[in-house]
Give the backbone structure.
Amino acid sequence: MKLATTFKLAVSDLRMKPQALLSSVVGIALAVAFLGSVLSLSLGIRETIGKKWVGEYPLDRVEVVKPSLKLGLFEFDGSSLFGERKLDRALLGRLRDIDVVDGVYPVLSINLPLGARGGRELLGKSLYADVMVTGVPAELLAGELQAYLTQDSSELMPVLVSDKLVDMFNSAVAPVVGIPRVQPEALRDIEFEILVGRSLMMGSRGAKKQGVIRSKVVGASPYAVDLGVTVSIGRARSLIKEYASSESAEERYQSIWVKLKHPDFLPDFVEEVAAMGYEVHRRGETLEQVWRVVFLFALLLGSLVFVLAALIMGHVISSYVRERWHELAIMRAVGAPNFSLLQLVCVEALVLGFLGWAFGMMVLGGLAVGVESGLAQFIPPFPLKPEVFFVMPAWLACLLFIASVLAAMCGALPSLLRVSRANISTMLRRGS
Amino acid sequence: MDIGAKTLMGLLQGHGLGKFVGSERTAIFREVQVSIERGQWVTVCGGSGSGKTSLLQILSGLDPQSAGEVIFGESCLYTMPEKNLARLRNRKFGFVFQSFELLERYDIRTNIALPAWVAGDDTDDGRVDELLDQVGLAVRKTREVWTLSGGEKQRVALARALYHTPEILFCDEPTGSLDDHSKSKVMACLKKVKEAGMAVFFVTHESSLESLSDQTLVLKDGRLV
């Protein structure tokens, strides 16, 4: 049969039983809405985790850290278990010697008691907090930040803050204190004091003297330490030299960033690093694992709903076929091959699948808009609160369409097989 | 088997045909030999349950035989691929059933052009008009099938059977459920078909068709007598 004729016939057949048509479309629509909502929600959360928590790094940059002990989804510092592993100058040299490595950038820990005081411009009053300070080579940063960080002077020390810290400030501090949210650029030029050699937690342990350094925020970066500030590595070294006692003065790194010659070299590099007794920090790996578990669970649950929808479809298509048993027998008698009937039932399934998908997407759209506006209105801001909860990429919409058509086809298949295997004379007799 | 030799004998042949039903394989008929020549009218008579309709269905490719074989031209009907058998039913065979077997939801024209529809061909409107004239339904051409009388429905069914000008027309008691007036109109149409040189395989329980019939077969107790 011609496709246009088949389509005309299929639509005419489907209109024969509007209630059955409605029930199968609603079944598929609910399955689409359910599966679509759980998947798009998990994608939305993943995007938040990916962008806000894990951070965005160039593909050729990886971070070498001490080995860790992983127990399921939990991770512990395992360096003492694997023998003493130091992130030091010697390791820096060994990493630089690996063929696939283009550059190495140590993140220097300043093992000194440190505190920060200030924030009047931002918060209206001055606050104090113990902080960590790290030092990174300016070359690790993007062009603009690189320039700002190296404009160091003895009066004003340029520092970077973590972009995650900015996000936490925007989502947790700003709404509570009642001040506007800030863009990372707006933080630039905010000044505060860093108290070196004394802190609430450490007292003055490890310091040979105390001092106050006027500092200025020059931007936010994913390479900056989360709960503290990051300065240029040169400045960090001079702080250690000036303030650390002899036992705290040893140069130790928190981690070492490595720039590979090409992202494709990553597997080789990971292998080499493992052979050296260290590991490459897969940022967000644990979160990714959690996300995968959640995504698979959502997929499984959604698929079960689709199986139910397919069963409803099967029932509906089977009732259509029963209703038209006689007509199908007549068509076969006058020369319709099984393929034509297959085509007809498939087009019917396709139409039902398409209608179910379209209604399902509308339900999903309504649900997403409702939930988004509800959450925006009634749920207070919290750190890493997603700006958008539901993400619907084109591939997910296509996947849902394919799933709904497949559900319809699977539902239609048993009836179709029955028709194609049935004897024409029996079909005619039964229909008469 | 020498198919070449057999094809010389007729257009459609049934050799040693048998039909068995049920788990005990009860025979409806067995060892039936049938040969239909081009342009020949073959009438099959017999009482209810004698297997006339089963024989027609076997010969026309609607229902496979339990024993024997059916040869059309040079091919065995039930060993050819399903697609080819469907095409044979569509192009070479025409069907007129006692209960009309029309698509009641559609109009007369759609029903007549059904063989073209299911074969994926464009509908030949001229051919539909010609057939409507031939069966005397030109004035009814826009009517829905369900609004027609039994005799009119049977003439629509006949027009549908003739759409592709088949080589054999299979008629399964086409006048069995019609009144005398309708019956005479349908029979008049069938006479024209015979005059046009088409072979007709006619199943009936009546024995009043001898004037039209070139060969009359009687099925009794599961055998041709």
